[in-house]
Structures are given as structure tokens and as C-alpha cells.
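PROTOCOL LOG
Step 1. Enter all chains and additional molecules of the complex.
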Amino acid sequence: MDALLLVAHGSRHPGSSDEIRALAAKIAQTPGHQFDWVDYAFLEITEPSISEGVLDCVRKGAKHITVLPYFLATGRHVSVDIPTELEKARQEYPQVRITSTPYLGAAKEIPDILVRLSQEAT
Amino acid sequence: MDALLLVAHGSRHPGSSDEIRALAAKIAQTPGHQFDWVDYAFLEITEPSISEGVLDCVRKGAKHITVLPYFLATGRHVSVDIPTELEKARQEYPQVRITSTPYLGAAKEIPDILVRLSQEAT
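Step 2. Run joint prediction.
Step 3. Record the structure below.
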């Protein structure tokens, strides 16, 4: 069983959790992936935390969890905090393979998207 | 003269300003836009601030500034803080047209990019 775990920052804004939940559902419906389900978790402020998200995946029977950092900037969160959480999870669940993708901001498509968005100014 | 002003959150991480500067340069080189130049500014922590970024565009002769919020989540920053800064700027420079695009997280391409990134796990 193969799980994708989308990891966002977390926010005090009440709608932000719904936004990530909706995004996880959209990813699940997008063609081109091999995941049995798409879950989500937050680095701070909002629940579920990363360790809760990993636990949920493990309980559902995940043998491989792919973590996707939904962040734009490389910084402490991406380079230290998330890897630290994942290392803890690997030690706790040695039978589960836990890997991570590059963070969203590193995606090569971003400049093209920004140019397209720039044509939608109101 | 038409300017694009990329607005990022700002970070204590020393490399984050370079990352936004490099992204602004990449956008400038991406085909499909009408901007004479691409500038960048930060909502907090990092300089230049939004008001400094707008002032810089005005000094360079911008008649229209398109602001692009480089944010993933809709929250106070996107819904209140940036619009408030832009409203101040409009009052200060009534001769300049200042508009804003949707924030990056609202772009319809995001789920496809996340699926592609999920195939790059290491």
C-alpha cells in the first residue's frame, strides 16, 4: 500500500485546513500517480501533525509513504524541521519506507504558472 | 511602462531572498508576458518591503504595477495584509494603476505539479 502525505505549514486561519484537505482530494483524482490514497498533515499550528499523519498512514496499512512538502521557500522548515520529523518516523516504523519529494517551490513549472497568473490581474 | 511585482512572505533564512530574486529573473525571461521588468518585495521580515518595491517601480516609471502574491494558502496575509498595503500604495500614487493577480496556491496547475513531484521522491 502506497500513500502520499502532503505536508503543509499550518495556519491560524480557519479555512486553511479545508484548503489542504480539498487539495489532497484533488491530487487523489489527478491521473498519473500510483498512490492508494492521499493524506495530509501540518508542520505546526494545525492538526493532524506530521507524526499523526504518518501514524494514520501506517494504520491504514502503508508500506511506503511519500512525503510532499507543500512549501514555496527553502528554509529551516524544508531543510531541517520536516527531515527531522521524517527521521523520527523512520525510527518508529522501521518496516515502512518513508521518502520525500522536492518541495513545491523547487518545481520547474512555477515560472510558467506565474506568467499565466500575471495575465489574470483584476 | 508595465511592471510585475512578485510579493513573497519574507524569511529569516539567509538564502530565501536570493531564491525570490532568482525567481523574478526567471519570470522576466519566460515568454508570454508584457512586463517591461519584474521586481520583487516581501510582506514582512525581509527587505524590500511592499511599499519599497512599489516605490522602486514608480521611480522606474511604471504606469501599471501587477502584484503577484507568491503564497500557497489563503489566509490573513493574502486576504487582508497584501490588499491593505496595495490600497495604501494606490492612495500614495494615484497616477499609477495597481492591480493584483490570484495567489499562486489558487492556480489550477498545482495538483498536476504535485503529482509530477510525487514521482521524484528519493
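Step 4. Note key features.
The mean pLDDT of chain A is 94.
Helices of chain A lie at 16-29, 50-59, 76-92, 110-118.
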